[in-house]
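WARN no homologs supplied; continuing
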Amino acid sequence: MLLLLSLYLLHPMHVSVTEIDYNEKNKSLEIVSRIFIDDLETSIRKAEGNEGIDLLKPSGTTTDQLVNKYLQSRFLIRVNGKPANPSYIAHEIDELAMICYLEIEGVKQVKTLDITISVIQELYDDQSNLVHVTYLGPVKSLRLTKEKPEGTLSFP
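OK structure emitted
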């Protein structure tokens, strides 16, 4: 971890990582997204027009409310061509990252996933949002950028 932190300080990485796993028992897509806290806070400040927002010690609202509102417009998924609204569940802090938990319920089968993730792209042109999807087989991945914030994965 120290090496990763050293690399981050020498050359800031602008990346988020999202994992989407199919829960066959619950018929749901479980989503876990890791985003650097400082970048997320700066993006939310910009979106809200409020430079005083502190995600770790919010005033007048909760961290979950701020993060949920931000993610709603920047985290879009279509399952089999139909819009699916991920429900925000919670967050936790892991060193420099905020881990956000979301879920899409009522997913019986996935043939295609159209994924748009544009978090932090309003701040950095080099922002990459990596997505790893596990659905009844090997992991499939996408790299979403400012130039290409959306991608489609197909499943047999």
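Strands lie at 15-23, 28-36, 75-79, 82-84, 87-94, 97-105, 112-117, 128-134, 140-145, 150-154.
OK
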